[in-house]
Amino acid sequence: MPPMTIARRLRAALAALLIIVLLAGCGPAPAPAAPAPLSLPTAQIVGGPRPEGALEISAPTAHPAPTAAPPAPTATVPPVTPPREGPGGLPFPLTLTRLNFGVVGHLYYTDRAMALAKAREAGFTWFRQQIHWRDIEDRSGQFFWGELDNIVADVSAAGMLLMINITRSPAWYTANNSDGLPEDPATLARFTGALAERYRGRVQAILIWNEQNLAYENGGRITADDPGHFAEIMAASYTAIKAADPSMIVAAGAPASTATNDPAIAMDTLSYLRGMYSYRDGMLRDYFDVQALHPGGSANPPETLWPDNPSPAQGWTEDASFYFRHVENQRAVMEAAGMGDHQVWITEYGWATPNTSPGYEFGNQTSYETQGAYLAGAIRYTYANYPWVSNMFLWNLNFTVLQRESGRDPNHEQGSFSIVNADWSPRPAFWAVQQAIGDVRAQQP
Questions:
Q1: Which domain holds residue 373?
Q2: What is the CATH number of the domain that holds 167?
Q3: Do 128 and 101 contact (CB within 8 A), yes or no?
Q4: Is the dihedral of CA 147, 152, 157, 159 positive or negative?
Q5: How far is CA 443 from the centre of its chain?
Q6: Is residue 18 part of a domain?
Q7: pTM of this structure
Q8: Which residues touch 368 (CB under 8 Å, ≥6 apart)?
Q9: What is the C-alpha to C-alpha distance for residues 276 and 233, in angstroms, rounded to an integer?
Q10: Is residue 248 part of a domain?
Q11: Per the domain annotation, does 121 fall within a domain?
């Protein structure tokens, strides 16, 4: 056995021993002033690129400002909350020690073995699966987990880490019989707590909702009161999840990247974030581990940003929300609100290619080769400039396959973001992303 392999196995064994000691030490002894890093056990990935090994979680640390810093906020920046003990005696908020890589895909009623094999081959160690709450809980309050049990088992067996993204309420829990956010936060908390209990140790993160600043995702309208309502939802769900599994990472849903302010369409990204963070003097600070964010993209290269470094693309260029680097402006809002000790996870980033969907015409400017260059550029730019980002999920892996399987238009916009074709063959972006992830991993300690 090569010496390097022996060393890695020894490190894994020591990490596992550390977990046993920590779990056994739940008695009255005082907690240490600075908790030691905690490694969550995961199966080793077989084949493909070098696996990350155990998931390392540590207390938050101060980071230097990014190279391409956003404009300084005008308001006085509150001091960052010092590291403290969270649920289960773990550091709060939970943070990752290096930049991780994940992919958004769909594992329901498709070739899961192929999807997971392709995800690993591309270099991803995390998989994000969205679920619809309305499909699991019925009006009686019973849960029917169904195929989700098989998905969780298969992701775990593949040696990948899993983030579940919860969306779509049962209609009877909403104010207007829609599938937007529930009226009573306790109803979602009951569901998230049950999910965390059922999949304890096999689901590593739960993402609460998705682009809830869009009227459709919120229930049909979006008003100034809704960011505060979402903060209450986060508080209830966070508490329920941590009661079931303190080591599970809880992510606050990402607002869509938009500058639109129309109650029937959307609230702009930055206003929504400010509303979340200012509600009840910043109560949200205690009820999430990481903030999910969605940068823009359109047909704009990842290093460009309006107005100082605008894109040469045709259209969708004259607002920061169209750009990948809009994540910097969103991070500035976090820091101005005193949330800088919470890391960011980019839970969707991607570039559309030619498609036939109205509203996504910008994809017609981006070839498959250019898509690959932009995705690789975004990965490298994030690693070089955003020390506060510890996970990034590419949108998406296999929606082309889903379109073929369902008989839908193969040129639908969702498939245009994919990195594989409808027959699972890799697009140029697949190889570009694989190389970029490998390059970053080689540089990380």
A1: 35-65+88-443
A2: 3.20.20.80
A3: no
A4: positive
A5: 23
A6: no
A7: 0.84
A8: 353, 427, 428, 429
A9: 11
A10: yes
A11: yes
